[in-house]
Amino acid sequence: MLALLLLLSGCRIEMSLDEAPAGPGTAQSSVPASGNTSAQNESLSIFINGDIEYDESQINLKAYTSLQEGALLKVILREYPKEASLREIFNDEVQPAETPVVEELIEVDSKGKSTLTLERQADIVYFMVVQFNPELQPDEIKEVYGARGEKVVVASNVEHYEYEGETMIGVTTSANIGMRPSWAYLQ
Questions:
Q1: How wide is the angle at C-alpha 58 spanned by C-alphas 103 and 171, nearest 5°?
Q2: What CATH number is associated with residue 119?
Q3: pLDDT tens sequence across 8-21
Q4: For the chain, N or C: smaller number of CB within 10 Å?
Q5: pTM of the model
Q6: In this structure, are residues 187 and 174 in contact, taking their beta carbons and an 8 Å threshold?
Q7: Residue 87: inside a domain, yes or no?
Q8: Domain tally for the chain?
């Protein structure tokens, strides 16, 4: 019994609902054949995080992601009302304005990074959102992640939404940006 247990402890059996069962003498790997590429039925994880440094006049975003080079991230910056207190903002008692101050697309580079510098008013608290939206992607990126994001599997920050009558799967992360010079990170 001990010999059988030792023999089996080095074995790992994997099953996939996306593929036909392996025949005798064939092996399957759970590791993709190459970096950030996608097989037809492969599910992909996406993470987006980043650092935000700001002072009285500028906001500097450095986003880090597992997205393939050439993917686009949508950055939305909204203002909170001037009369709102920091306590109300951080307790979600007040919401930022519906109309964005800035809405821009930034491209992911070969290292998974994107940067953006924005002008700001010193006495305003902002809410920044960074999104991966499949409908905004170039065709070569849609091939990787799916035209509706259907190949994306994410543990957190996944967002299901409707676009032109279809359910899309995107990724959203956000941060509040205060008044004093400081930093924040996307979460």
A1: 40
A2: 2.60.40
A3: 333 332 222 233 33
A4: N
A5: 0.75
A6: yes
A7: yes
A8: 1
